[in-house]
Amino acid sequence: AVVSTQSTGALNYVFVEVVGWKVAGLATAALLSRLLVLALCLGICTILHKRGQLMWKPLDRSIFTQWGPMVKLGLSGCFQVFAELGLWEGVTFVSQWGMHNLLPTILILFQVSSILWAVTTAVS
């Protein structure tokens, strides 16, 4: 989550301020930062699997009996998705009605929601 938040912030600056893509730059930055995190996770899993430190277990009945951790992660994930969708709707509304002075505030709220998601996931 830290890598995603930091890379999103840096890419937001590059695509919005340097390249000048505005809202399209925000979407591109969000997509690229998530792809970066996905590649990082897959790379770490691949390295650990090759070293024998990560064992892929086959599906059995135990996956259907231990729901506690999945529910905790799912609730924080639902909060993150709801916050992201709500804030993106806010960005769309603000950009369509010419209230561009509110965009920085909404984007800061977007970053804060990402940080809150990371914190709630770590705590759960």
Describe the fold and architecture.
- The chain is mainly alpha-helical and 124 residues long.
- Helices cover 77% and strands 0% of the residues.
- The chain has 4 helices and no strands.
- The radius of gyration is 18 Å and the shape is flat.
- The mean pLDDT is 75.
- Helix 1 runs antiparallel to helix 2 (23-51).
- The protein has helices at residues 2-18, 23-51, 68-96, 103-123.
Summed up:
This protein has helices at residues 2-18, 23-51, 68-96, 103-123. The protein has 124 residues and is an all-alpha fold.
Key terms for this structure?
flat, 124 residues, 0% strand, 4 helices
> What fraction of the residues are assigned to beta strands by DSSP?
under 5%
- Overall form: flat
Order of helices and strands: HHHH
Radius of gyration: 18 Å
What percentage of residues falls in helices of 4 or more residues? over 70%
Question: Care to count the β-strands?
Answer: 0
Which ranges are low-confidence, i.e. pLDDT below 50, for 5 or more consecutive residues?
none
Count of DSSP-assigned helices = 4
**C-alpha end-to-end distance:** 14 Å
Overall pLDDT, averaged?
A: 75
